[in-house]
Amino acid sequence: MFKQKPLAAAVSMAVWSLAALPAMAQEATPEVPMQTVEVTGIRASLAKSLSVKRDASANVEVITAEDVGKMPDKNLADSLQRLAGVAVRTDYDEAEKVSMRGTNPDMSLIIFNGHAVSSADWYVADQGSSSRSTSLSLMPSHVLQQAVVYKSSQANIVDGGLAGTINVTTRKPLSQKERFSGVVSVGASYADLPGRYAPDMNGSVTWKNEAGTFGVLAALFAEKRHVRRDSVSRFAYGTNSGWDVINTSTMKGITDESLAGTGYTAADLNGVRLPGSMSSEFVESVRDRKGGMLSLQFKPNRDLDVTMTGFHSSMDANNHGRLSSSAIYSMLLGKNAPLGGTTAAAVNTSHNGQQVFAQIRNPVIVDETTVYGHPLKVLKAADIVFADGTSPQYVGNSEGFYRDGAKAESSFLDLDAKYRVNDDLTVKTLLSTTRGVGQTKLDQGLTLARYGTGISYALGDLHDAPFVQYHNAGANQPGLNPDGSGYTIVDRAASGVKTVDKEWSAQFDAEYRLDRGIFQSLESGVRFADHKRTSGRRGPAFRNGITLDPVTGRVISNTPTPLTGWQAFPGDFGKDLDGPAGWDNTGFTYTPEGIKDYIASNTKVTSDAWERRVNSEIDMQERQSAAYVMANLEGERWSGNVGVRFTRTEVKANIATPIPAGACQRVEPGQAPITCAAYPGAITDAGDATAYFDGMPFNPNAGILYYKTPTKRTFDNWLPSLNLRYDMGNDMLARFGVSRTIGRQNYNLLGSGFGTPGCDANGCRVTGPNPDMEPQTADNLDLSWSWYFAPRSIVAVSVFHSSIDGYPKTGAVGSSTVDLLDPRDQTVKTFFINTASQQGAKINGIELQYEQPFGKTNFGFTSNVSRAKTKVDDGRPMVGASEWTGNVGLYYEDAKLSTRLVANYRGEYVNSTTAPSPTANSQGLSVINGIAMPTAPTYADAVTTLAFSANYYFTKNLELAFSATNLTNAKRAQYRYSEEEQQKLDVSGRQYYLNLRYKF
């Protein structure tokens, strides 16, 4: 399952270079101190980074401002992914979330100037995910001065990074050489998939007084880019999404007669895996990022240094998604529910008053092995069709959603002061406030059902689009044909989401010089942070409902399907997905204007309170307190630190809890809320998506009412750490680190509301939070060796181990219950709560790093590779964990030209949201071919990307910069139980940037 071909190539190149290392080392001049090497640009940045890495007590990786200036990077995540052991989650070909050493992004802590930064997400699904991971899509790379990645912890680092901590420092004005200087960059970006240009501009100016005691740095940026993603997937409505097994007892169209001449009987197909749907998706977006940074620094003497930094970034990211999907699973079960429902109550197909079932013709079955090592049979190709002469039945859907007002913004303000009281005592204080907002004002769209007589498909390789062809389903445009084929509107939706994350913190640190034996100095400090997280949805009320015929499932209400205001998929849709000749890559959707006009005309104004959807809300406050003491040590040829940090986490959550039906009544929009005697805290004026149609009497008992249950928990943790650095001589260093770290649980596991109630023969269940979940802790061991055999050169090996306690075990049925309404029979029943529990996990890994210039030439080479083996107690894979990551880079630099080519590899990993819901990665079992095995999550397959940059200097001050990302136009594939089960495949195209920079 774990393909390593790209990685093998990278390793081979590294091995080849290592073979040449002794000769190159002989050419170098190690007797010349690194500090005296006069180089600029890429070479200067490498020297700076390696110098910081070499001097650090802990095991760190470093990236400097020159690195960013010479790399093809548009945000900090792009820059960080070049480092050993660092991987990123990429959406629409832009790196956003950063993870370390084979873990989920939630386990890594990113801080700016020593404090947390509230980030935000631009995409509607991420906006409501309640992840702790920091999205770096708002952080342009040119604000960076230096980023230090701490792989081994120490007591004076802010707690919260279970796998590691990344401290990003921004530029300071007094660090600049000139009194007055700046840079202006003007250019454009070009996205080749949508074929669109956009402006790309940024600039900064620095001034300091003649005495060099006060300075100002101001930076502005305005960067726009067009985005498009073409996809094929198994996504669809109802239970059509994903994969399932053939069951001839319920899929009654599969008979020996229908399979005549194929060599199979109906019994042969039982247990064979088949796709529930064949779908194509098409998303377009414009990301418009604007913002700036202002830094004021006052340093009147060598004893006092005060810096205030303010940063703000916002990104408008309206996006338009389209989907064209089939309904294979529904067709085989003989169901005609136009949104894919397949339960017993779902509407049956109907032909001449009789239920009809789709048949499987011309099946192609292959043998495969699951990710768990079990045999698997997969239906790779087939015709899923109704019997000849059957009238058109439900065969799929088309939808279009326009996310208007999609936006993310992040800002912080910090005041950092350092004062040297005397030769022995230095004190520091850091005050900060930060706020992040992710919002989509209105996620609005229309869904149409498609009617026809069948679909043919043939799955190819994991990285190729499948063959798809519909039968007797009409053209891809809205409206029904006289024979009943075609499209008709069956659903519409509109709601908005807003998540606000904010924090203020205060920190005081002191360092006292001891110079007593091995004890060089003693550091201590305290920190307090008050963090708040709120999230929720709101949605307007529709004027009228959509009524379906209870027998045929067809729309019978007066809900006309708009026949204008639509557009077809572009003619080049899927051109880079390598689909087979003749595959159906067509589709249609309504234009953004058409969608907005339809939703506006079909919704009405009620009240702010009525639009509220309480069941989706998260309302939390988290207070973090910490104190630490750390001794800095030094002996002959060795140094290090030893310390302990105490943290207290106080979590308060107001959890949306359902009220038993009939206990309280809802009030009509515009009316004052009433107090419910049984539940005084009942929120009686919120609509929670309850129908409120024109001309219909208001029903105060419709839907589910909620009240907020307050919870409060306090968790204490002691975090000891030890780091030792030993100079082995001959420019070789060894490091040893041992520490305990914590990572706080995602917000939704602690304080989300109850949702997705359901009942079956085994009882009733509902998802819910677990406020008793303690923070995760990890006991970490890190051992590394590095050899700085020449200027700007290093060979390094690190081995590491982490033993995690408290890793979330999602989807566990607990003993807690709540009384809810069973929607099947409208009676109150006791529901068991599906929630999260905790378990153990382990990570073992090794990292290799090698970089050096090619002798005395202007060429150089960088490379690293990392392997992290993860193991979770319940045997399930760790979400977001890649076993293999690697980078290979080549650079050339002279007085006029600077170029860099970088390949980045990330191995496969479980592709889930970084904040899995209480039922994500379910703990249940699936029976496939008679074998009970764990239910598999979705895997993202390995991917290799290639980026290039070139900078040409016309003069010392005038530079032309070109960069390109995703040069190979990598396809990103996903699968489930095996690579034969393609779940999704998408491409985002290449991005090109051309800028003219003037420095003054």
Q: Which short descriptors sum up this protein?
A:
51 strands, mainly beta, signal, disordered N terminus, 53% strand, TonB-dependent receptor, cell outer membrane, five-stranded mixed beta sheet, membrane, 10 helices, 32-stranded mixed beta sheet, 1000 residues, tonb box
Give the SSE map:
Elements: H1 5-19, H2 21-27, H3 41-55, E1 60-64, H4 65-70, H5 76-80, E2 86-91, E3 94-100, E4 108-112, E5 115-116, H6 124-127, E6 144-150, E7 164-170, E8 180-191, E9 196-208, E10 214-233, E11 243-245, H7 266-269, E12 273-275, E13 279-298, E14 304-316, E15 319-326, H8 328-333, E16 359-369, E17 375-385, E18 393-404, E19 407-420, E20 425-452, E21 454-458, E22 467-471, E23 479-480, E24 486-516, E25 519-538, E26 541-542, E27 566-568, E28 588-590, H9 592-602, E29 603-604, E30 612-635, E31 638-658, E32 682-683, E33 706-729, E34 732-743, H10 747-751, E35 755-760, E36 763-767, E37 776-787, E38 794-822, E39 827-853, E40 859-872, E41 884-893, E42 897-906, E43 909-910, E44 925-928, E45 931-934, E46 939-940, E47 943-953, E48 958-965, E49 972-975, E50 982-987, E51 991-999
Parallel strand pairs: 4-7, 36-39
Antiparallel strand pairs: 1-6, 2-3, 4-5, 6-7, 8-9, 8-51, 9-10, 10-13, 10-50, 11-12, 13-14, 13-15, 14-19, 15-18, 16-17, 17-21, 18-20, 19-20, 20-24, 21-22, 23-24, 24-25, 25-30, 26-29, 27-28, 30-31, 31-33, 32-33, 33-34, 34-37, 35-36, 37-38, 38-39, 39-40, 40-41, 41-42, 42-47, 43-46, 44-45, 46-49, ...
